[in-house]
From TrEMBL:
It comes from Peromyscus maniculatus bairdii (Prairie deer mouse). This is BPI fold containing family B, member 1. It holds the Pfam family LBP_BPI_CETP. The gene is Bpifb1. SMART domains: BPI1. InterPro entries: Bactericidal_perm-incr_a/b_dom, Bpifb1, Lipid-bd_serum_glycop_C, Lipid-bd_serum_glycop_N. The lineage of its organism: Eukaryota, Metazoa, Chordata, Craniata, Vertebrata.
Length: 474
């Protein structure tokens, strides 16, 4: 077990950052307006929204309009007498717009519609065409639920006459132009209602599918070796133009048993305000450490120095000779070092950099047959920690060992200042412990959401108390 001086050190080093990190949910997925627009547009395409527009019953809507006026009925009958067919010949949904509402926890989605309608009349052999541009507006809101967490809902889907623009594409005879203008005037009140009745249910279905896809993406299990990391939804939120998923997490062992829960969160999301990235995933520092603890557990290493790093073995012998020449003479070809890590590397995430702190008990034996060491040392070591992306995997690598503190715990040769060994011990850690721990991390952690959201590359960055994933553009 680590001595109290090491515990005090780790508390001082990690404490301030962890206290700050605990103000956040364990993980936060921010989805910006670009992602929302792209995914909703794809969902509309999957639900054949264009085909729905091309099948709008323009003629029957004019014939069966509610609240008709006798004078207008006469106008409609006159116009319809000269129409063989009237239908949408082409349709397009240009770029969607997602923007914040004036109300909290609400987004406005604007879906522009660009259609061309064709009118066939015996008055002329040429097809009469006119352009129809309008816009559907819907609201995305956070709705509380008595069962389980809150959820996002799309509502108030409608199209207004104020956004409708109709224009004749080809100028023909006075009679045909007059007929076309009459038809367009009759469509002004009819088209918004048709869009609401025919297209809004499709938009609702597309949104529901998109939201479920987002939830599945946010809560997809992450394979570790051993075990896995499972995410769950704490609550959805809307901030600025972003959809935010506040996530809880649990670690599972190789038998799918829960070993650790992470579900604490408070209302304040200081530090997780959405930025301009298309999306970002923030992982809280204590969850990062739990993942590292799973991948790099505490262990004991035994090293025969002369066979593994002979130059360091000679250096250690020279150091011991300065302390006790008689003891140095007892070092044999099988001189042995035992290292017991008292903790997994504890990651400290500061703005722009990451460090790892680890407590180690190191014992030096004259040969591999001795059961009592020359001495035992408590070591407080720091490493540089680098997070990076390799393909679709999060990678972590430790380097540049520095020993911050050494404490002589037991000595069978004589009392001495352990600082004399600092340089040699640093090399032992650099050549043995770090490669061993980096080897456990070499497979990385799969992160599938980047490609699922339509991006090929990503980058990890370090923020105070969190690790952050965003798309990379190059």
């Amino acid at each position: 077990m680590a001595g109290p001086w090491i515990v005090t050190f780790l508390y001082g080093l990690l404490g301030a950052t962890l206290v700050h990190a605990d103000l956040w949910p364990p993980a936060v997925l921010n989805l910006g307006p670009e992602v929302i627009k792209d995914q909703l547009a794809q969902a509309l395409e999957d639900h054949n929204a264009i085909a729905i527009l091309q099948e709008l019953p323009l003629l029957s809507a004019m014939q069966n309009r509610p609240g008709s006026i006798p004078m207008l009925d006469s106008l409609v009958r006159t116009a319809l007498r000269y129409i063989v067919w009237l239908r949408v010949t082409s349709a397009n949904i240009p770029r969607l717009v997602v923007q914040p509402s004036t109300y909290d926890q609400e987004l406005i989605v604007r879906i522009p519609l660009d259609m061309v309608a064709g009118l066939n009349t015996p008055l002329i052999k040429t097809l009469v065409q006119f352009q129809m541009n309008t816009e559907v507006q819907a609201l995305i809101r956070v709705e509380k639920s008595t069962r389980g967490p809150a959820h996002l809902n799309l509502s108030d889907c409608s199209s207004s006459e104020n956004t409708l623009r109709l224009s004749l594409l080809n100028k023909l005879s006075f009679m045909v132009n007059s007929l076309a203008n009459n038809v367009m005037n009759l469509l002004v009140p009819a088209l918004p209602q048709m869009v609401k009745n025919q297209l809004c249910p499709v938009i609702q279905q597309a949104f529901n599918d998109m939201y479920n896809d987002f939830l599945e993406l946010a809560t997809a299990p992450v394979a570790l070796s051993p075990g896995a990391l499972d995410f769950g939804l704490l609550s959805p939120a809307i901030q600025d133009s972003n959809i935010v998923f506040n996530l809880k997490a649990k670690l599972l062992d190789s038998q799918a048993r829960v070993t650790q829960w992470f579900n604490s969160s408070v209302a304040s999301l200081t530090g997780t305000t959405p930025d301009r990235a298309p999306f970002s995933l923030l992982v809280r520092q204590d969850l990062v450490n739990a993942i590292v603890n799973t991948l790099v557990p505490k262990e004991e290493l035994v090293i025969l120095l002369t066979f593994v790093i002979p130059e360091v073995a000679r250096e250690l012998q020279a150091n011991i000779k300065e302390i006790n020449a008689e003891a140095a003479n007892k070092l044999g070809p099988t001189q042995m070092v035992k290292m017991a890590t008292q903790s997994s590397p504890q990651i400290v995430l500061k703005e722009g950099s990451a460090k790892a702190a680890q407590s180690i008990i190191l014992e030096v034996f004259p040969t591999n047959t001795d059961v009592r060491p020359f001495f035992s040392l408590g070591i407080e070591a720091n490493y540089e920690a680098q997070f990076f992306t390799e393909g679709d995997r999060l990678m972590l690598d430790f380097s540049n060992v520095s020993i911050e503190r050494i404490k002589l715990m037991i000595s069978d040769i004589e009392l001495f200042d352990p600082e004399i060994l600092k340089g040699t011990l640093t090399k032992i850690l650099e050549y043995t412990l770090l490669p061993n721990e980096n080897g456990k991390l070499r497979n990385g952690i799969p992160v599938s959401m980047v490609k699922a959201l339509g991006y090929q590359k990503s980058v990890w960055s370090v923020h105070k108390g969190a690790l952050k994933l965003t798309p990379a553009f190059s």
